[in-house]
Amino acid sequence: PKGTLFTIVVLLLFAAAVVSAVESDGESECANRRIYIRRLPTRFNLDLLSNCSDYPVFGDFCSFLANHGLGQRTHNSSHSWYRTDPYMLEIVFHRRMLEYACLVSDPDLADAVFVPYYAGIDALRYLFGPEVNSSTEHGLQLFDYLSEWDSPQIWRRFHGHDHFLVMARPAWDFSQPLSNDPPIFGTSFLESPEFFNVTALTLESRAYPWQEQAVPYPTSFHPPNLGFLESWMNRVKRSKRSTLMLFAGGGGISANPNVRRSIRLECENATNLNATGTGYANFCEFIDCSNGICEHDPIKFMIPMLHSTFCLQPPGDTPTRRSTFDGILAGCIPVFFEETSAKKQYDWHLPREEYDEFSVFIPKEDVVFKGLKILDVLMDISRTQVWRKREKLLEMIPRIIYRKHGSSMGLRSKKDAFDIAVEGTLQRIRSRKQ
């Protein structure tokens, strides 16, 4: 954390030089894209990182702070692969914002205002720490600071409609009703009237979001230049798909009917089927990722995904999965069982009208209660359709990854998940202000 703080300070000095150039440029490519970063006391962001080992129920996340939230490299010679924890997206996003090309130092010139608050990390003291019974207070100190203590005119100009922040957890974790007594799991940040106008970028949105917008879970792939991205995409394109379908995950072990249980049983039965003449060595592969054993070791699931045609993406504790983006990165066609698993979530990055072009949808009710075999559905998809879907996935890879900070100019020419999130946020704020 101390090293991170020093680097952030240096970057702020660098950003100041960029800012002055933007402000003197007048009507340029930054028109309607200017962003002001609120200057928060470190207790709202960097100081929170010093508590990285204080939540035994959540786990020690100190090692995941390395490389500005990307985590440690998977191995010493790696240039693009990291042991990334998705809950560190707030740090990753903050670092990328410091090199955003259209920063301004005058909030009156800004089209949007970024609040570098590590909301998900701060929430840990309410979710897994000693302040669980005070979870309705999450964010109130931040609101007081923004609206009363630090240049309150910035907030009052649009009553927070032009402010946005990143909350690296599902929105449900911040949606506990204020009336709950005693509190249940979650905080009430998104239920607080003080933040109703702020745009929150979350890993998963609620069914009817009006405050938040879901953005992709970070994968472990963060290329520093165009060469590493193109090298990976070529590997995906050349990879031989010897397995028809793959499920990497946990759950499904209870006797109660659910889609994960149905997947496990079908996959077990499929191992006894003869795949000769189908073009596949086997029909189904199951990667047991119970208890989070795969989460920070991409080798466990990325290589099997590279060798599979379809990746099954059933809902779990929540509708969405990081595995969806790991699969897309591997060129493994996602199979969804609920529309809330992706189609109703990530429309900035995965436009709703394109889902038929890159994915397969099988209603979970048909699988669990009507006996529909996933294998039968996937075997009926022609090789031409499979090829077209994979070509679409290859096209999508750049926009669902978060490239490494300080990346090359060549790679910056391709919009990544961060670029698209900022672009969508600016458009959303523009419509709100109007």
From TrEMBL:
<keyword id="KW-0333">Golgi apparatus</keyword>
<dbReference type="Pfam" id="PF03016">
    <property type="entry name" value="Exostosin_GT47"/>
</dbReference>
<keyword id="KW-0808">Transferase</keyword>
<feature type="domain" description="Exostosin GT47">
    <location>
        <begin position="30"/>
        <end position="369"/>
    </location>
</feature>
<feature type="signal peptide">
    <location>
        <begin position="1"/>
        <end position="21"/>
    </location>
</feature>
<dbReference type="GO" id="GO:0016757">
    <property type="term" value="F:glycosyltransferase activity"/>
</dbReference>
<keyword id="KW-0328">Glycosyltransferase</keyword>
<keyword id="KW-0812">Transmembrane</keyword>
<protein>
    <recommendedName>
        <fullName>Exostosin GT47 domain-containing protein</fullName>
    </recommendedName>
</protein>
<dbReference type="InterPro" id="IPR040911">
    <property type="entry name" value="Exostosin_GT47"/>
</dbReference>
<keyword id="KW-0735">Signal-anchor</keyword>
<keyword id="KW-0732">Signal</keyword>
<dbReference type="InterPro" id="IPR004263">
    <property type="entry name" value="Exostosin"/>
</dbReference>
<comment type="similarity">
    <text>Belongs to the glycosyltransferase 47 family.</text>
</comment>
<dbReference type="GO" id="GO:0000139">
    <property type="term" value="C:Golgi membrane"/>
</dbReference>
